[in-house]
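Write out this protein's structure.
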Amino acid sequence: GSQQMVEETKKNTNLLKNVTIKCNDISEIEKIVDFPLDGILCSSVLEYIEEPYKIIENYLKHLKSGGIFILSVPPTKSITRTISKIINIIGKIFGKSFFAYIEYSKFEFDPSSLKKFINNDCKIIEIHDFDHYLPNIFLNIFRPSLKIFVIKKL
């Protein structure tokens, strides 16, 4: 995200009257908000940073009891991401990049490992699959491009 994205969101969203939208370094959450938090949304971010599990742990620590953490991450063995990587490799031969984000993405998350990582005072209450290319019927067969975890602090 960028400050420009934050300003655009504020300008175009009337529903967020009681929501604060900020653009900051996610590893420095202590510097930007008051604690404990009611909720945190971390969507398509962690795959680009060096220590994603440290960020998850830190965010969960700062939720209040009953608080919700919504996390979307690319799972390992995603058919869509695998095909995107192959297309990018072929594209490079011709001097093109079709999925630039793939080049910067450092991590893919094994869903079962992520479940084990969630600490004892939190519980995964929902898991959703999302893929902007695959029809929903195929999500029963193939891993999606994103897994969305809804985690509640107990």
